[in-house]
Design goal:
One of its GO terms (biological process) is methylation. It is a single chain. This protein has about 280 residues and is an alpha/beta fold. It folds into 2 domains: about 60 residues, Orthogonal Bundle (434 Repressor (Amino-terminal Domain)); about 200 residues, Vaccinia Virus protein VP39 (Rossmann fold). It is built from 11 helices and 7 strands. Helix 9 links the parallel strand 2 and strand 3. Helix 2 crosses helix 3. The longest helix has 13 residues. The model has no long low-confidence stretch (mean pLDDT about 90). The chain binds S-adenosylmethionine. S-adenosylmethionine binds next to helix 8.
Length: about 280
């Protein structure tokens, strides 16, 4: 899967509220040139990139979908550098539920968002799914590849930041555990819509998110660039889908060596064919 400059130009331009003409004017070029970039018919001249990134209030790396090798987006980069697997190598309980609800009797394309060190992706691949998985950490992806090699699991792992990355192909299943609190609230509608629209008809989302509860203290290993979801917020993303199951659970965790609690919302939702007008 590649991150496409053309999609990023469209997305950042629209988020700034510029038309193609307005962007072209600011760059002193023709609107046809902008249209060609956005339709992947040509690439911007390299000399224009600093101005383009500046006008779109981003940086060249983000625009190109490139994460510099040394850039640390999350503390997990360091945590995954240890020899041991931070989350162990046993799959999350949710994986069994996916298997039960949408068994791969035919090749099913599954995307894992924020795969960490790869335990769940490897489980899915070993059980017959065609797995694509990404995480922002280089250390996590390296370990995930190693785990996949040990189990001879063929998985398309890559490094991407979910805040900048958008899907341009469809999946039968989108799975993510403990990751979507890294999508800041202002990006949630857009990213969830991208994931929903790139889900095949009959496809499934199996997702959980950490949620805010006033009576649960901040966990000791919480990440500054994350924001818990509101209780129930995740379920509203699937109001047009069939919600097979949704639940909210408070559980104990020891991830940093200090016992603490989390509250988590989980949903299994199905994209049903649209029958309106039949
Ligand atoms: C709580 S861990 C869960 C990991 C994995 N899903 C699991 O259950 O083992 C959160 C994961 O989100 C990843 N992450 C954090 N910020 C991210 C971002 N902006 N883009 C992609 N992944 C991110 C972290 O690297 C980490 O692997």
């Amino acid at each position: 899967m590649e991150i496409r400059l053309c999609d990023n130009i469209v997305r950042f331009r629209k988020s700034k509220g510029y038309t193609q003409e307005e962007l072209a004017k600011k760059l002193n070029i023709s609107s046809q040139a902008v249209s060609k970039w956005e339709n992947a018919q040509s690439l911007p001249d390299i000399a224009l990139l600093p101005a383009l990134a500046g006008i779109l209030e981003t940086d060249i790396d983000t625009l190109m979908g490139y994460i510099p090798k040394k850039k640390m987006v999350t503390p997990y980069e360091d945590r995954y550098n240890a020899k041991e697997y931070y989350w162990g190598t046993m799959p999350n309980e949710m994986c069994m539920e996916v298997l039960r609800r949408y068994y791969p009797t035919r090749p099913l394309r599954l995307l894992e968002v924020g795969c960490g060190e790869g335990k769940d992706a490897v489980f899915f691949a070993r059980n017959g799914y065609q797995v694509t998985a990404f995480d922002v950490t280089e250390s996590g992806i390296e370990k995930a590849r190693r785990l996949a090699d040990i189990h001879q699991a063929d998985i398309d792992f890559f490094r991407a930041d979910l805040r900048d990355f958008r899907l341009d192909e469809d999946f039968d299943i989108i799975y993510s555990s403990g990751v979507f609190h890294h999508i800041l609230p202002e990006l949630r509608d857009e990213i969830m819509e991208n994931y929903r629209s790139h889900t095949a008809s009959g496809g499934m989302h199996a997702v959980n998110v950490f949620v805010e509860k006033p009576f649960i203290p901040e966990p000791p290993d919480s990440d500054l660039c994350s924001r818990n979801w509101a209780s129930g917020e995740l379920f509203t993303c699937y109001k047009d889908w069939m919600i097979e199951e949704c639940r909210e659970v408070i559980f104990d965790c020891n991830s940093s060596g200090i016992p603490h609690k989390h509250c988590m919302d989980t949903v299994f939702a199905r994209k049903m064919p649209d029958r309106k007008g039949e």
